[in-house]
Amino acid sequence: MGDSIPLDTGRYSLVHRLAGLKSALPAVFLCLIVNLTLFVGIVVRRPTYLSDYRQNANPDAKHYVLLGRNFLLHGEYSRCEKPPYVPDMLRTPVYPLFAGTLDLLGGAGALYLAQALLQAGSCLLLFVLARSCFGARAAFWASLLLASDMMLTINNFEAMSETLFVFLLLSALVYIVPSVFCMTNDERGSIPRLAIGGTLLGLCILTRPVALYLPLLLVGSVIALGWQLKQMARSIRAATLLLLAIMFLPALWIARNAVIFSLPRLTTVDAANNVYFVGGGAYQMHWKISLEDAQALIAKEHGLPTYEVSQNPWISNRPLHEIDSELRRAALPVVTKYPFELVQSSLLGIVKASLSHNTSALADLLALHWAAPSMPELLHLRPEALARLEENGSLLDASFLWQLFHTLLSLILAILGAIAVARDGKTRPAAFMLISVLAYFYLTVAVFGLEAFYRCRVPVLPFLYLFAGAGLNRVEPVLSRLLKQRSLRLPVGKVVL
C-alpha cells in the first residue's frame, strides 16, 4: 500500500492528528478558490440571491431557514410564516438554528459562505481521518477529491443541511475511529475522545436523521474488536460510553416531541419516506406511473393520510401521533406488496443518485438556462443530444462533464482502494469498519426509492473519496512508471532516447 500505515494505537491526541496538515492545504485552497469563484459569479449574475433566502428553488431550503428565524425571533419552532405558529417535528433543529442565525446576522450570502468554509474544513477532517487509517498520500488524494467535487460546491449555495452534516460527521469520526483502536492500549485516554466524538455524532443526527442508526454500527464495531482482541470488558465499557454520548442530545429532542406531540420519536420523516418513497418506488415500477400517482394510489388503497398531510399535519384535524401511527402500521404491507419491484426501484435509485449531477442548480444560481441532454442519447452521440449541449454554453457543459468524469473516476478508484486496504493486514481493521459505514450510507440512499438523486448520495461521498484516495495511492506508482517509460521514448529532434 505504499505509505499506508496501521492505525495509530498509541496516545492519539488532537495535536497529533492536526500535526503535518501541510499536505492538506492544496485541497483546502482549491475548495476555497472554487467556492469563491462561484460566489463572485452569483454576485455578478444574480446578486439578489445572496440577500434573500426565499429565492432558493427548493422549498425545503426555505423551510429550514424559516424554522430557525421563527425560533430565534418568536421563540416558536414552526414552518408557518405567520401566527398561529404550529409546532414542528418534521425537521430536526441543528441545521435550522445554524441557517437561521447566519441569515439574521448576514443574510443568505453569509450562510453560503459559511458552508463553503465548512466544506474546506471537511477537506481537512477527511485528510486527518484518511491519514490515520491509510497513510498520508491516500489522505492527500482523498481530500483533493472532496475539494474538487463540483456538485458539493454548488450545493453549498443552497440552504440545505448536507454540508453541515458532512462536517459534523467527519468531526465525530476523527475522534471516534482512532479512539476505538486505541482503547485496548489506552482505555483511560480514549474516554474523553469517545465522549467528544459521540457528542458530535449526536449533533450530526440532529442535523440529518439519516445517521440515526449509525451508532448501532459503530457500537457493534467496538464490541467486535474487543471480542477479537479478547478484551470484552473494555470494549463493552467503551461501547456504553459511546452510545450514551451519542444519544444524549437526540434524547432531549425526543423528549420535547413526546411532551408536545405525544410522540417520543426523533422525527416523522422516516414513516412518510418508508410508505411514500420506498413503497412508492415499488408501486411506480409495478404500475408504470409517476411518483405522485403512486403516492395517491397508496393512500387510497391503504386508507392513509396523503403524503401532503404527513408533511403538513396542520392542514388536517387529526393529531400528529395518529397520522404517524397509521403510516408506521402500513409501512410493512406497502413496502412488501411488490418485492421484486422494490428491489428494482431501490437499486435504480442508488444508481441514479450515484451518477446524477446538479448542473441545473448551477444554471439557476447564475440565471442561465440548462437544456438537459438525454444520457442514452448522449452516450450514442446523437446529434440532438450534442445540440442541446452546445445550446448550454461552455460553462454549464464543463460543469456537467466534470461532474460525470469525477463521479466515474471516484467510483472506480474507490473499488480498487477498498479491495487494497481490506487485503492489507495493517489497514484491514479500519478498512472493514469504514466499509461498513460506506455500505450503511448507500442503504440510506435506497430510502428515497426510485426518486433518489444527487443530494441523497452526499453522506456517501467522504467515505467513497477515502477509499478512492487509497486506490489512487495504489495506482499512482504504476502511472508514474508508465509515464516515465513513455517520456523516455519521446523523440527529441532526430534522436530517440
Structure description:
Helix content is 71%, strand content 1%. With 497 residues, it is mostly helical. Strand 1 and strand 2 form a beta hairpin. The longest helix has 41 residues, at 94-134. Residues 1-6, 8-12 and 493-497 have low confidence and may be disordered.
Distance between the termini: 32 Å
Class by helix and strand content?
mainly alpha
What is the CA-atom radius of gyration, in angstroms?
A: 24 Å
Number of helices: 21
Q: What can be said about the biggest beta sheet?
A: 2 strands, antiparallel
Mean pLDDT: 91
**Count of discrete structural domains:** 3
Strand order of the largest sheet: 1-2
The residue ranges in which pLDDT falls below 50 over 5 or more consecutive positions are 1-6, 8-12, 493-497
Task: Kindly estimate the percentage of residues that lie in beta strands according to DSSP.
Answer: under 5%
Shape from CA axes? globular
Number of strands: 2
Order of helices and strands: HHHHHHHHHHHHHHHHHHHHHEE
- Oligomer description: single chain
Classify the helix fraction into a percent range: over 70%
